[in-house]
Amino acid sequence: MNDTRWPKAHTSGPLLLGVRHHGPGSARAVRTALDAARPTAVLIEGPPEADALIQLAADPDLRPPVALLAHAVDEPGRSAFWPFAEFSPEWVAIRWAVEHDVPAHFIDLPATHTLAWEEKEEPGEEKGEPREENGESQGEDREPRGERREQKRGESEQQRGEGGEKAEAGEGQGSRADDEQVRVDPLAVLAEAAGYDDPERWWEDVVEHRGPGERDPFAPFRALEDAMGALRERYGAGGHSRDLVREAHMRLRLRAARKEFGDGTAVVCGAWHVPALRAKTTVAADRALLKGLPKVKADLTWVPWTHRRLARSSGYGAGIDSPGWYGHLFHAPDRPVERWLTKVARLLREEDRIVSSAHVIEAVRLAETLAALRGRPLPGLTETTDAVRAVMGDGSDVPLALVHDRLVVGDVLGEVPESAPAVPLQRDLARQQRALRLKPEAMERELELDLRGDTDAGRSRLLHRLRLLGVGWGEPARSRGSTGTFRETWRLRWEPELSVRVAEAGGWGTTVLAAAQAKAAADATAARTLADVTALAEQCLLAGLPGALPVVMRVLADRAALDADVGHLAQALPALVRSLRYGDVRGTDTEALAGVAAGLAERIFVGLPPACAALDSDAAEEMRGHVDAVHTAVGLLTETLTGAAAGAGVPTGTDPSGSASSAHGHGPAATGRAVGAAGRGDLRDRWRAVLRTLSTRDSVAGVLRGRAVRLLLDEGELRSEEAARLMGLALSPGTPPADAAAWIEGFVGGGGGLLLVHDERLLGLVDSWLTGVPAEAFTDVLPLLRRTFAAYEPGVRRTLGELVRRGPGDRAAGRAAHGAVTPGFAPEADTARADAVLPVLRLLLGLDDPAECDPPGRDPAECDPPGRDRAECDPARRAPAESDLAQSDPAERDPVRPGSVGCVATRCGTSDDNSLAGVGA
Amino acid sequence: MSAMSASATSAPTSVRPTTAPPSHDTSAEVLRPHAENAFAAELSALAAQDDRPRPARWKLSPWAVATYLLGGTLPDGTVITPKYVGPRRIIEVAVTTLATDRALLLLGVPGTAKTWVSEHLAAAVSGDSTLLVQGTAGTPEEAIRYGWNYAQLLAHGPSRDALVPSPVMRAMAEGMTARVEELTRIPADVQDTLITILSEKTLPVPELGQEVQAVRGFNLIATANDRDRGVNDLSSALRRRFNTVVLPLPESADAEVDIVTRRVEQIGRSLDLPAAPDGIEEIRRVVTVFRELRDGITADGRTKVKSPSGTLSTAEAISVVTNGLALSTHFGDGVLRPGDVAAGILGAVVRDPAADKVIWQEYLETVVRERAGWTDFYRACREVSA
């Protein structure tokens, strides 16, 4: 059987197996071809430095998906990945070589050069993969077919990013746009020729879906080689200028291998390269191409990989969007569609969806008929997906999402044996520790950082980043003495298990920065509450992770938009505003953050009034906290935005990460910020409008109304007469006493006593209300009042008590004293008015002669209980001026009822308030 | 019962010519001709050039049916107008479903062209879209199985002549495509009548000791609305007999603007409104607002917004624009202005006065207010919602 094919395959030298990277069909074909040809050596497209690592493939602990990670020794951030899945033809070739004890070698350009190349050509780097913010590059792409699409993805991903990032992307890719016109996607051309609109499907139909049982295992490779040959004749290198160099290197290695192993050498490489390897060139010409390539010292190791990362939609994409499906195709011995749909049915059943065998039967029928309608030889992923949706999923995409997540992509995690070389993250950490002169010590020590200095700022960022990564080397401690934002205190302690944590975190990236960024992005997506996300945003700023910020911001914006609870929004705002301020202190570009904060504030403004209606007392109390927090935050926010607008002309931001990339963003971002600030200048006004709405709406709980009035008064937005009017309204007899007490709590609660000390009119209002509370209601409102007044500073309480004791002053005297119509308590008791009571008293006491018992200048406090004094005199005195504040007849009062502010203040008083005792007693 | 008697008069016997419906309804007088009449030329051109295998009793091959719905140009230059603007996949799955003799269930919110697609599918597959059962809360079992001509029944006793077949029964006997509109509105017990028909492809007539077995070519297209109130969910037994295709709302804003403009033009003509609406700006704006609120995300993909409780379908956008057009014609200067559509939008968006109002205000403040060139619209909306 072999005899007929063998000569054909070897008519022109070595066995060249052109493949589609990560194509299960190719992988199967490669295995069959290798089994048939039994080569003496296997050459694989990949970095030759990894030759030594090939033997690890024999280790049962090395389980794909794994990736070869190459990184520059001095600069772990410069790295490249070569992922391998179980169904990758390269992996199959490696395994075949290891199993058959045949030498295997990588023949692509050494990573030494490819890594250095990236340095040289940054940022207009050749490959189309999306670049990470920190300058970390994607894996050197092994597949010609993936490049164009990859680039598209990269661009669209960056477009989704925030403003600064976008501007940068535009600059970085400007030169590339022209390049792309020249570039060809070889498979797109072939597919178009075959009448397919999607090259992916063409490849699947023509190559991947061919079973291995064809008569000639080499036929597909020959056909593909011919096709690629025709393409390359027409398009040359197709704009992949680096390919020429890589291919020259491959040819040199191939020549060397042929010298060593003879013609029984097999090469597994991307189909695109096959014609070039077949081409006849001179050694000298190839050498010339390779001359003068830049070099960096590179190190390689195996790292575990996941299906998710292989998938197109995540970071280091290998360009395949359905690794799970490919894995299935690779493993299924026969009837792939039936098996696949059965798998899907099982998955859906596990998730409690009713899916019977009848469903599977119908789905298979539908998939096959669909394939026929679309003219495809076998149902592909599209057909099976359509069938699953129509038959098993009731037309809904929800179960499909599950199928896509669990099966089409899959949750496979690779494993790497212990013997694999160390993770670069460790190296990077060690390097940074050296650079920042921050030695890991087992002994606990305290570290004071002044963030204005570069080294200290760097240290702070490193510690924050490590904290994000779960490496708890330093714990932030409260700064002593200084509360300034440029000071930080840390407690450092390096424990041995932290090394393990670092190794674990190695999965997130190769440098501390990259890893922390990846972790922050992942955390943001997984965060449960809005406040968690804002806290994360704050951390990102502290840790100097501008690259993670767009993701966090996006999640934040999403969460904020979906979170209907104003309370959550209000909780989230302060941290956000705080981050804004810190961001400014540290020179981070916080334009995006400001946008989100302003948006959040707007949403709170809109949502707050309805959310404040019909609350019970607990909820109202909670809401009051939110209102206070938002008030503070809005103040800070307005300040920050205005400040930003003022400084917008100068690009103040120094790039904390030290990478060149984010420097581009400042120009446009600064302009945008100025515009934004102008538009948001009225934030404070809008907030005041919201407070106004709150203060006048009857359905809003009393404590909130009181609070709103107070905030407006403090802002100078409400004149004190207006505040007095509102207070009078809230305290008028029509209001239930409990509600009125809540109003007072809101108005003067939480240490707002000084206001009462200074504005006697308000004190007078409170006082007169209090004395007007009916006896039955008094006990109800007492706890609330006690809570309100007990929170005051002793000094304030004392002053209040004294004021009350002095009693309401003469209106004329008050006017003279304050120079304005500010009614309240005069310095002296108004004896003239107090005397008016005497006739009644006399009557009650049964004294005969009114004239006898009327000594002028007699202190009314001596003969009248103070409570009675004010309860009766005050309203009487005020009645002519403020008749709108209806008061009941003094004569109806119980003269001994303890109903005055002074009384309450006394009851709340502590031992140092003894001087007040005289007032109440 | 009324539906039954109507069909009984037009086709009293179970055997009915499979040609087009009675010819006396000339299309000039009919308000709305059937799909197979309106597009007869396209159908015959397709049939003439269709050389692919056709399933039994199909007028066209599945491929040609898909072309008929999605539009295209035939080799001889005949242009087939697209009947459905949307993902190709949906029509392909629908046609394939019919070819595999599985029943087809078209799901979707109101205004997504379910009925339209089902009519054209039936017209293309069987050349007859009139075998229709309209589902209502009062649809009786007879509407799906068969009824009796009581005069005949009393005069001659139970016989095949006294039987009044339902459209479904006729479709079974003749290998045609039957349609059930608003399946979920039909009471659950009546719905389940379909189970035997769909799984065993037979309809027993116990009164006569007979049965009607479906011949090849029979199939059933049902439409249903999954988001409405007062619907009867399908039993899982029945659901299992259907392949479900969900008709989505238009994918891109341009497609939707296109659909809205076209429909508004058609409706406007019949209302004697100006033929070409001058307010493409406003149409685009209405469509944008509807889409953003519906999708919960702004068109630039940068801001999330909340979705109100209404469905905000394309059909509603059409009605808002038509309304605005009427306003501007009769009370304005004939040009569609922001003020003309603002009230309509408010009415369409705010269905639940409490929750939707907040959502709408939030949208106004966070999205509309900031948008360049939308100031007039913002003001108009503020005015009507104040």
TrEMBL record, chain A:
Region Disordered: what ranges?
119-183, 647-677, 806-826, 849-921
Q: Which InterPro entries match?
A: DUF5682, LolB
* Top-level taxonomic group: Bacteria
The residue stretches assigned to a coiled coil in this entry are none
Pfam families hit by this protein = DUF5682 (PF18934)
UniProt feature, compositional bias: Basic and acidic residues: 125-169, 855-881
Write down what this protein is called.
Uncharacterized protein
Biological source species: Streptomyces filipinensis
